[in-house]
Amino acid sequence: MRNWVLITGCSTGIGRALVPLCRASGWGVVATARRVESLADLPAGEDLRLLALDVADADSIARAAAACADLRFKALVNNAGYGQVGPLELLRAEELRAQFETNVVGLHQVTNAFLPLLRREPGARILQVASMLGRLSIPLGGAYNASKHAVVALAESLRLEVGREVAVVLVEPGAIRTAFRDSLPLVWGDLPQRSRGTRYEPVIAGYLESRKGQAERYAMDASACAAKLLRALNARRPPRRLVIGWDARWVGRLKAVLPAAWWEALLRRMYGLG
After folding, report:
1. Which long-range contacts (CB under 8 A, 24 or more apart) does 17-20 make?
2. Catalytic residue among 82, 144, 200, 271
3. 218 a catalytic residue
4. Global pTM value
5. Could you read off the pLDDT of 128-171 as tens digits, one per residue?
6. Domains of the chain from N-terminus onward
């Protein structure tokens, strides 16, 4: 019988790249997205199920779990998420709540919904996709930073609680070349208007272009990142922590050795806040 994995956030990026890799490796894949039509171009087959799954909707999560009850369900990849960008003093409370609702509460609800299915299979595992920004913070990303710090804490606590039954792998990628940044203007909403006349106006105006340039030069391809996740899915003994990308490995080390004042000055300069 085929082992099955459910992956959240398969419309783009790491989730989309992981689907064909898993199928080629022998997994059956339950590919999910908020809009299931965004998955229509995935090649059909007996090893693929497509489900609409909104991680911020408890009913949607319950329906997805029920739809997987007949499967030999052996892995869950909590990949869905987005990045709320903006200086904290301009960020509305509802924007912070929405960030946590998807990146943290949604991840938690999906995990709890599928744990009973995972417990049925020896060697089952959960991959919780956080970020290198779950270990450090950058300007203009306070909400996203905080959500990924929370994912790190949830994953580490969950491992202590259920790790002997279901392995919990904390995934910490660095910069990934995905459509993540292309969606920033949609996430911003009226933030550029709110920033007018403040010290942040020129910073926000130049943010998107500078981030795109850095992503093109330094970021890892989503498929290369997905290949690392596949290794954790296939490993007989999955790692507790999966750090992906040179920046994820080295930026944290740099922060640890630099004096705090130097580190903060470097970040302020990089983001135009000097």
Report:
1. 17/222, 17/223, 17/225, 17/226, 18/77, 18/79, 18/226, 18/229, 18/230, 19/48
2. 144
3. no
4. 0.94
5. 999 999 999 999 999 999 999 999 999 999 999 999 999 999 99
6. 4-247 (3.40.50.720)
